[in-house]
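Recap from last week: sequence in, structure out.
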Amino acid sequence: MAEHILEMRHVTKRFPGVLALSDVSIELNAGEVLAICGENGAGKSTLMKVLSGSYTSKEYEGEIWFDGEKVHNMSVHTARSLGIEMIYQEINAMLDGTIEENLFVGNLPGKGVMVDYKTLDEKTQQILDELEINVGPRSLARPLNSGQLQMLAIMRAVIRNPRVLVLDEPTSALTDKEVDKLFSIIRRLREQGVACVYISHKLDEVFEIADRVTVMRDGHVISTRKISETNNDRLVEEMVGRKMDSMYPGGRFHASDEVVMKVTDLTVPHPSIVDKNIVENISFELHKGEILGLGGLVGAGRSECLGAIFGQITTGVTKNVELFGKSVKIRSPKDAIDHGIGFVTEERKKSGFVWILSILKNLTLACLKDIPGKFLIDKKAEEKTAKVIFDRLRVKAPSMDTLIVALSGGNQQKVVLGKWLLTNPKILFMDEPTKGIDVGAKAEFYTIMRELTEQGVSIVMASSDMPELVNMSDRVLVLSSGKIQGELTGDEITQENVMKLAIK
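Predicted structure tokens:
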């Protein structure tokens, strides 16, 4: 057997007007974890789509070698026959299928067309026990949360006995406990000789699980080193191509006395448990020009709070909302927008943008009523309006006519934010604002957020990224068991204090 289980040699991938990969070469050894890091748009996911056969041999230049032999006619089928399994960042599940169908799709135990349901049930139950998911093998997948669905997708790949396992941002939807479980699985696979490619923006995970790390930038490989031969600062510098003195803008806001929003008696039903509330009769205030952080463990109700106030969640919700001292009724997102509230949602692909539209059309979605035009939208006025934000946020794209699905995650998130900035919001809700985007884009986001508060915009930020929550919030409210367990300000805002309140 060759020294390397896998080699990708001089891979180049072109899209119209974009060189996504330029002469990229990597090697992977059996029984190692190779991390690949880089900003959104660096080419990481494109490289893995080449490896997994999503792009066939005719769609890229270069070679792939496996066990010392050149791979011809690369395709998804070829990759799978070699033992290459890919776990994508986006959750891939049949929501109306059973747990066992999701786990063993295309891999059902039995002979011929006859399925061995007894074995299927037993194997599925073993996996559910290992993952500590308390449902039966024949339960539907739909009630599961995003973390549980992601863990099932990971196990679906593992039970195929892969030679190479590729994980693209696998922990973006996982709790800390689920991350520990995933790392345990990866270590077990490594001991069995399975090679893993681990793509992540979370550098603490990279240093915990990887043996080597490759940094990519603008479609090129910048470096490959043993994890023991690098550090956090060096990786970040190589990823962004410049030194970064600090990820976060300095200083905290000293809250003004002006209350821009007052929420009282907010109750929100649990999204999946009947006759249970995920948020129970909570109240809080938002001051002008501050960033109010919402902390808590996954399932604490942070997203549901924002969705209910914004009018996105209505069934069973009770609330009283005052804006600038006046009681208002918010029955729908339109009401919220009319009152000067914007909402950067957690799942940008589900509720942040319209995937079939261009950057231009997505930017102007929420402010069309303000663009001139009697019967038809004035195209020039629309472009002029959008160009201001497009340039301000430094969206990396050939033009505003580029489809939003062609952008990296960080640039998609910039467009989502830009859409709301064009409405000139007084209050901005941000739910996991930097989820799935790279360190360089995060730093830009944080600078923009602080600039907005300096202009008088008030932000409510729900975040499970603890450093983000601690460093960006002027005040933090910690949710647990449906209640606000405490409020932290100034030097009280530490990871330790947030966690103490979160586990109450």
